[in-house]
Amino acid sequence: MNILETERLIVRHLRPDDLDEMYAICSDPELMRQVGNGQPLAKESVQRWIEKSLDNYERQGFGCSAVISKSDHSFIGYCGLVYGHADDEPEIIYVLKKEYWGQGIATEVARAMIDYGFTKHKLKRILATIDPENLASIKIVEKTGMKFQERGLDENNLPEMVYAIERTEESYR
């Protein structure tokens, strides 16, 4: 099911047949270096993640989603709103294949996902937790309007920077 579109992208729910495409991303050490514990994922873990995403769509209406290029309908990454380790506030996540870096696509999809969370799901606040060395991701969230909140350690005891954006009633009625 498609959940949103931008000028260049379609964002849709993950499907079981996305396993190979998701695994190609999640098994890439460079792409996963600043995600989670910084380690690539095994195929079985990616399969469980897709299953969890399917469950999240049913339970809360959102989760990790596929990012598809409109130009050639290829699977180019993932983006979504998920509950992090504390499970109290939703967090935006995104990863794109390397050949799509530096084109503004991550900012495009992140902006759209934040808007989707605020308008469709009436979320009050969305977080982003970022490795302090991930300067590109910091620029992305700042372009979306997210503001720095604090530095801390994540559930893996790794350094993180927390950003947040709040829904304003004037903008999202």
In a few lines, what is going on in this structure?
With 173 residues, the protein is of the alpha+beta class. Helices cover 31% and strands 30% of the residues. The protein has helices at 19-26, 29-32, 43-60, 105-119, 135-143, and strands at 2-5, 9-13, 64-69, 75-83, 90-96, 125-130, 147-153, 159-166.
Envelope shape: globular
**Amino-to-carboxy terminus distance:** 24 Å
Find the count of extended strands (DSSP E, 2+ residues).
8
Please estimate the helix content: 25-40%
Q: What's the CATH superfamily, by name?
A: Gcn5-related N-acetyltransferase (GNAT)
User: What top-tier CATH class fits best?
Assistant: Alpha Beta
Mean pLDDT: 93
**Main sheet: strands, sense, barrel:** 5 strands, antiparallel
Please identify the structural class as seen in this structure. alpha+beta
By CATH, the topology is Aminopeptidase
Tally of structural domains: 1
SSE order, one letter for each helix or strand: EEHHHEEEHEHEE
Under the CATH scheme, which architecture would be assigned? 3-Layer(aba) Sandwich
Order the strands across the largest sheet as they lie in space.
1-2-3-4-5
What's the gyration radius in Å? 15 Å
- Parts with pLDDT < 50 across at least 5 consecutive residues: none
Number of H- or I-type helical stretches = 5
Oligomeric state as shown:
single chain
Report the portion of residues in β strands: 25-35%
